[in-house]
DNA sequence: CAGAAGTTTCAGAAATTACTGAAAGTTTAT
DNA sequence: ATAAACTTTCAGTAATTTCTGAAACTTCTG
């Protein structure tokens, strides 16, 4: 499993970016390597290619599986386990969004719901609660929205994206076509 | 600047979540405090309320300003500098998206563009380049899309979000209404 | 201009996070 | 049941990130 210069650059970059995407350097590198390699690749090969310990590789693969970005692939006749991407690029991107939503939004939603249950103790708290409520609603919208996008599936999502600034025009159109439904507040 | 229990819980939580949102614990806490406090608040008050050093506060505020989430507010007659949120919740959320896009997507786009310029050295590289190209196109779509959403502004964005699963139906509708324009590929 | 009131910087300390490698665990084959 | 081939775990170490606080800087005020 010798990495070509192109693959090396890409893998290193995904390592650097990894931490910004929610995982650490080696996890990012492992992911890139698995995605860019057409053949299934073994844990040992990963360790060798990236010069990291076997233990680290094992942990990294575990994490990537928990993100559902990578899956095992059993090669008949082989004892070792091999790894391949858990789907095409679109699927992987969706998984990243979904997992991040779980980690970045859901816990906050849950806390906000709790904090909004208590009656405000004073003026100051009432104001803060109002702000927290705004945040809650925003996060709820984002969540609903992102789930909606996932349900659309790649093709329609693509249509929508390609539509670009047409979306705004379409919305106006819609208000005329479907009056009364889903009204704006 | 005594924090009420409610505000304390919220501030602490935003601190914990901070790192997932792209900044560190104290930066998250400072942001929450500024947002939840109706009055402008001074750097010293922030240090006291959060029990962090004056230096750390200074750095945190600098970072929040670089994210354009917080701005200075000069109180006439006061020597000190006060801080307030740089806009309403919607604005802040947009800023976070935008900044994260800059940090999480743009650098990768740039690298991918470069890597795609070189001719592939062999079969393996050609395959990898194809994958990289898919990733590039996806990121490009996401970028275009998120910019589009920002241009829509809060109200329309809200309409769109409230529309929920209606979006799918609307897309079909659109194809009938505007045939030939923005065709699907 | 001296000094008071405030802010920023940055070297080093503290806290956190990631990595290694050896030991323990698992599975398959004989 | 033993051993070979492989994987996982985890205690300790290494690397990175964050925080402190003292010194340097900047503005205002008298």
TrEMBL record, chains A, B:
Limits of the HTH marR-type domain: 22-79
UniProt key word Transcription: yes
Keywords annotated in UniProt: DNA-binding, Transcription, Transcription regulation
Highest taxon of the lineage: Bacteria
Pfam families: MarR_2
Entries under SUPFAM superfamilies matching the protein: Winged helix' DNA-binding domain
InterPro entries hit by this protein: ArsR-like_HTH, HTH-GbsR_regulator, HTH_MarR-typ, MJ1563, WH-like_DNA-bd_sf, WH_DNA-bd_sf
Record flagged with keyword Transcription regulation: yes
PANTHER family found in the cross-reference section: HTH-TYPE TRANSCRIPTIONAL REGULATOR MJ1563-RELATED (PTHR38465:SF1)
The family this protein is said to belong to: Belongs to the GbsR family.
Protein name (Swiss-Prot/TrEMBL): HTH-type transcriptional regulator
Lineage: Bacteria, Pseudomonadati, Pseudomonadota, Gammaproteobacteria, Alteromonadales
């Amino acid at each position: 499993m010798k990495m070509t210069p192109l693959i090396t650059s890409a893998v290193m970059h995904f390592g650097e970016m990894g931490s910004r995407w929610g995982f650490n350097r080696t996890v990012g590198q492992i992911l890139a390597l698995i995605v860019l390699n057409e053949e299934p690749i073994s844990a040992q090969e990963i360790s060798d290619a990236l010069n990291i310990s076997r233990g680290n590789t094992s942990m990294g693969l575990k994490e990537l599986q928990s993100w559902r970005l990578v899956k095992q692939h059993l090669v008949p006749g082989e004892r070792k386990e091999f790894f391949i991407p858990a789907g095409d690029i679109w699927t992987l991107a969706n998984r990243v969004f979904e997992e991040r939503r779980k980690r970045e939004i859901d816990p906050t939603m849950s806390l906000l719901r709790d904090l909004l249950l208590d009656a405000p103790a004073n003026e100051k708290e009432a104001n803060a609660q109002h702000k927290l409520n705004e945040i809650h609603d925003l996060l709820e919208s984002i969540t609903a929205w992102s789930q909606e996008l996932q349900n659309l599936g790649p093709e329609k999502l693509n249509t929508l994206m390609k539509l670009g600034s047409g979306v705004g025009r379409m919305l106006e159109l819609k208000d005329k076509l479907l009056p009364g439904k889903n009204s704006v507040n």
